[in-house]
Design goal:
By secondary structure, the protein is α/β, with parallel strands linked by helices. It has six helices and twelve strands. Bound molecules: fe (ii) ion (2 copies).
């Protein structure tokens, strides 16, 4: 039964919570997941020192790891603006992972991570090349494997206006359904939300794992996901400041569709 540890929005930089980061790392080491997925926003402004700290942290997480960039991973400060426009992912590729799109296969799970950020416009874009690549990658999955897509921005609407989310989420979800994707993981909103879309795709959004940029009353959080032949279980783990540890804050169980 594959176990996925999904964390997001680490945000190394001024608003980083070092104590909570230690707790998350210890939880990863104790959980021994089959795959750890980090869905973007490793840094706050894409500064070199933030990237160095993020890399040192990631190296303590046992592989396999699936990583993809967030909108905050492009440099954003006056002296870096030219770099942001010309080579926005050079630092990410130097410090975090050699490619911005990547995939990891473990028994029972085929996971693809996609870069859905762009330098100027808010996130939520996939190029035609990325679509073709995703199609090829998911076609490689073994029969019965759970196809997982990880990206930074959200495909759900959170029942609210969604200013910086994925564009055309319904069209994206309809298309992902044709590829057989069962689970979509994202971050960005700093709010843990898990729902099943009208297409039957489970959407699991992780909160921010270790940034002090907390929103809507949620504490730091990560997702623990178990994939069995029959179901996908998403357990939200949220930091309890009083007890100084992460505790379960609800579990969502979704039956998987039977496939031939
Ligand atoms: Fe973020
Ligand atoms: Fe973000």
């Amino acid at each position: 039964m594959p176990t996925l540890f999904h964390l997001s929005d680490l945000h190394f930089g001024p608003k980083f919570n070092a104590r909570v980061s230690e707790l998350v790392l210890q939880d990863i080491l104790n959980t021994k997941p089959d795959l750890t997925i980090l869905s973007g926003d490793f840094t706050m402004r894409g500064r070199v020192e933030e990237y160095e700290q993020a890399r040192a942290y990631i190296e303590q997480i046992p592989p396999p790891r699936l990583m993809l960039p967030g909108n905050h991973d492009q440099p954003l400060y006056p002296r870096a603006m030219w770099e942001r426009v010309t080579t926005p992912w050079a630092r990410y590729q130097k410090y975090i992972h050699a490619t911005v799109d990547s995939c990891v296969e473990i028994p029972g799970v085929y996971a693809v991570g996609i870069n859905d950020n762009r330098p100027i416009l808010p996130g939520g874009f996939w190029s035609q090349e990325q679509r073709a690549w995703m199609t090829r990658e998911f076609a490689r999955a073994e029969r019965g494997a759970c196809k997982v897509l990880a990206m930074h921005h959200q495909l759900n609407w959170n029942n609210k206006r969604r200013p910086f989310g994925q564009w055309f989420p319904t069209a994206h979800l309809n298309w992902l359904k044709t590829l057989g994707v069962e689970l979509v993981l994202n971050g960005h909103m700093h709010i843990p939300v898990t729902i099943r879309s009208a297409q039957g795709i489970v959407l699991a959004q992780a909160g921010t794992s270790m940034s002090t940029r907390l929103r809507h009353g949620h504490n730091n959080a990560y997702n623990l996901i178990a994939v069995t032949p029959d179901e996908i279980r998403v357990r939200i783990m949220e930091h309890d400041p009083q007890q100084d540890k992460f505790l379960p804050r609800g579990e969502h169980v979704f039956p998987r569709e039977k496939r031939d």
